[in-house]
Structure formats: C-alpha cells, structure tokens
Specification:
Elements lengths: L12 H8 L6 E4 L6 H7 L4 E6 L2 H13 L3 E5 L5 H7 L5 E7 L4 H5 L24 H7 L2 H12 L4 H11 L5 H12 L10 H12 L2 H15 E11 L2 H14 L21 E2 L5 E2 L2 H6 L7 E7 L12
Parallel strand pairs: 1-2, 1-4, 2-3, 4-5
Antiparallel strand pairs: 5-8, 6-8, 7-8
Helix pairs in contact: 4-11, 7-8, 7-10, 8-9, 9-10, 11-12
Length: 316
C-alpha cells in the first residue's frame, strides 16, 4: 500500500500498454481512472482517452489533468455505463478498453473512506460515496445475509461465527470496531500470518459496491463499444473477478463454458465476439518489489471480432 504522498503506480502498466497497442488518433477507454496512471500513459501515444470513475474524489482530482492534457475526457459514471455514455457523446465505437478492478490505493489510504482497518475511520467503503454504506449493511442485514456475504465474497470458512459476533456487537460505526470483532471471533493472534479482518473487509466492500455485478455489466458494455479489432485489457486482484473475466472471454471466443462434469458441454450460442484471448499475465518479481499491490494482479486480454454482441448475460 502506498502512502498518500507517494506517486500512484499502475499495476502491469507495460503489459496493459502492449495489449492495447494505442496509436495516434485512436480512441481508448480507461474505465477505472483512479489517479490516472493508465490514462496518462495512454495519452502519450497520441490516442484520445475517455476515462470513467464513479468516485467523485477521483473525478475532482483528475480535472486538472483533463484541462492540461488535450484529448482527455473525464466522465463521472460507473464503467458499466460506458456504452450509453459513449454513444450519447458520439464517441463509440472505440479502439480499446482497459479496466483495473477493485479498490484503489487512494481509497485505501484515506481512513475517512473506511476501506481499510489499518487506520481507524468511519465504516463506509462506498466507492461512489452514495447508497448503502458498510455500516448500514452490518447494522441492518440479518445474520444469514452477513454470513453469506462473508463466505461468498471473502472465502471466510467460519462466516457464520463471524456474522453472529457482528450482530451481537451492533451497532458498529468504525473500521477499528469491525476489525476487532472479527479478530476476536476467530481467535486471531498478533503473530498470525494474515489478519482475518482482511477477508471480512473485502467481502463487505464487494457487496456494498456491487463489484461483481458492475464487472459483469462492464464486460457486456465493453463488448458493445469495441470496434472490430478493438483491444480489451482487464486487471483483476482476486479469484472471484478473474474467474468471471476468464469465463466470459472463454465463452465469447467460442469455447465451452466449464460446468459440471456430469452434464454435457454447452455449445456457444452465437458467433465469437472475441478472439486472441491471452493467458493470464502476472507481475514479475521486480514489479512486485516496487509495488506490492501487484502480487495479486492478473491481466487478461482479448481482441474484438466483427460479430454482433451476444444477448447472453454474464454469470457472476
């Protein structure tokens, strides 16, 4: 995790640029603007960049870059809305789309945003700073729902025990309170290798921000806006996201989606909309040494065909 004053380091930047291969005059979408790391690198190619972010702070901080850099358009919206937003502005189709999924370093580093338990802050976790907060969820959801979220999105094996402890301790308003409850429920010791609060915070954040649903909708939007030959590059940071992207690209490129070994293979329902699907790319040791966040990152890439977008939804 970077400090608030440290420069933002985009993960797998060289690999993302190689996959997108931006050329002067092309139009590229950065669906997760954040601190603008990918956007700034893409602008150097001479391409036009349309960048999205649902976090008002990211958009506000990026306005100076938008004014300084010719060819940059910032849009305050979810990346899942890229198709309607681009079409409304006459900017579709585009030559490339990149997404860096998950919470940003800037969000983690601000205690007031409530994403991290490293520093105590309000139990918030909202990327868009609107709607249900983490405090709303843990204080209002029933025990079974909390347990399901912890298990499904955090791989917490003792989710029911943790959920029971959360409900018993309500109301919770601070990140430090929630972390303490989780640790106590699981018998955490200071010398343990991994803090179990990490799993709980990840799960609640994913749920509050509808991150997997947003990714599913974003994949459909990217399929819709990319022109034939357009390039897609997606960086994910945990297995739930990566499995979704991998399954989407396998299916959309004509492969059979994996299912039960007891059932027959499902055939593709339409002409492949993607080709040149790359294998997952991980960061090398040198990059991980410079930027520990890169350790869990996986890049997946593909190229748009001339086929019509599929009507089939993405499974989350």
């Amino acid at each position: 995790m970077s400090s608030p004053d440290a420069p933002h380091i985009p993960v797998l930047l060289d690999e993302v640029l190689a996959a997108l291969s931006p050329e002067p005059g092309e139009t590229m979408v950065d669906g997760t603007f954040g601190a603008g790391g990918y956007t700034l690198a893409l602008l150097k190619s001479g391409a036009r960049i349309v960048a999205f972010d649902r976090d008002p702070d990211a958009i506000a901080n990026g306005r100076a870059m938008e004014e300084a850099e010719e060819g940059l358009t910032l849009i305050a919206a979810d990346f899942s809305a890229m198709a309607s937003e681009l079409e409304a502005r006459g900017l579709a189709p585009v030559d490339g789309v990149t997404l860096d999924i998950g919470v940003s370093s800037m969000q983690l580093d601000q205690a007031k945003r409530g994403f991290s338990f490293q520093s105590d802050g309000p139990l918030d976790m909202r990327m868009a700073q609107t709607g249900m907060s983490a405090a709303d969820f843990v204080n209002e959801a029933d025990e079974n729902e909390i347990a399901d979220v912890l298990y499904q999105y955090g791989d917490e094996p003792k989710s029911r025990r943790v959920a029971r402890a959360i409900v018993a301790a309500r109301p919770l308003t601070r990140t430090g309170e929630l972390a303490h409850i989780v640790r106590r429920a699981l018998g955490y010791k200071a010398h343990d290798k991994k803090d179990p609060a990490t799993r709980a915070f990840q799960a609640i954040r994913i749920h509050v921000n509808r991150e997997l649903g947003e990714l599913a909708d974003g994949l459909l939007a990217a399929e819709r806006v990319l022109k034939p030959g357009g390039r897609l590059a997606i960086v994910t940071f945990h297995s739930l996201e990566d499995r979704m992207v991998k399954r989407f690209l396998r299916t959309r490129s004509g492969g059979s989606p994996s299912g039960s070994r007891h059932l027959p293979q499902v055939k593709a329902v339409a002409e492949p909309s993607f080709s040149h699907v790359g294998r997952g790319v991980r960061a090398g040791e040198a990059e991980i040494a410079r930027n520990p966040r890169a350790r869990s990152a996986t890049l997946r890439t593909a190229r748009r065909t001339s086929a019509q977008p599929w009507t089939e939804e993405v499974t989350t």
